[in-house]
Amino acid sequence: MANEVVLLDFWPSPFGMRVRIALAEKGVSYEYRDEDLRNKSELLLKMNPVHKKIPVLVHNNKPICESLIIVQYVDEVWADKAPLLPSEPYPRAQARFWADFVEKKVTLFLFLFIFVYFLHEFQCTCLNIYISTTTLY
Ligand SMILES: N[C@@H](CCC(=O)N[C@@H](CS)C(=O)NCC(=O)O)C(=O)O
Asked: CA 10 to CA 39: how far, in whole Å?
């Protein structure tokens, strides 16, 4: 079976990062497409018509949406390589607990970090514009 894997993503997204880590753990090669979330591609809208969000894993032209579902899918399809969860039920439950913890608590901090990063970029751009206009006169 052909194994064409495309990941629709946006580089700072913690949800996308989760999928990239799973694919890296499994050693899956894939085509990475960075989306402009202010101008979403036709492919993204077609592949995720419900939420219209990244990440979307397109495996042999079939879309899989929602990062945790994608990670589970990756683990099942490439089951022969580097299992993402322990085999015993109790450690599996613990691993799922921490995945849930990251989903509910850590993601918020990552968003805050990304927000501060873009705010900083914006301030630098404003400062540069200010300096270049004031030094002109
Ligand atoms: N629950 C989703 C969340 C995905 C999500 O929020 N993606 C954001 C980027 S980090 C997005 O695509 N936003 C675009 C929009 O809301 O229009 C997942 O786990 O995949």
From this structure: 12
